[in-house]
Write a structure and sequence with these properties.
This protein has about 160 residues and is mainly α. About 55% of the residues lie in helices and about 5% in strands. It has two domains: about 80 residues, no CATH class; about 30 residues, no CATH class.
Length: about 160
Amino acid sequence: MKKSKKTPTIKTKTKPAKNGRITSTHTDLSVLNKPQEYLDFILFIAIPRVKRQEIMDVETQGEFSKKYGVGEDTLADWKKRAGFWDDVMAQRKEFFRQRTADVLLALETKSLDPKKVQGQDVKVLLTYTGEYAEKVESEHRVHPDIQKALDKISKVLG
């Protein structure tokens, strides 16, 4: 017996709708004919391709179109809507935020294996823990008039 998969609920910078589902704060959903499908499409776009089948039971945009009853032209139009990519980014951040511990474990495990360790992996892990910070040098330019005033002050102060 195959276990039925339930479409995950969007979790972004959102607010609960009256029906308990999550709704976008970047898009006015009231103007859409299929607002839940729109939110599901945001999730579809936000998650990595290799995880789409596992999470949403569809892998391609064409499969999404058929399963959710939304034309591919509509999907293309949704991608052009103001707020769409903001919602995608918010959902993507949430997707990876939920997996941070696993990623850190993988980095730590890899960094302990001399055959697999790469400097960039160690750098990412140490940056996350606060034990490493990139040194950034910057050049500050001072307006010539201000520099003259600073030089005068420096002479006076000795």
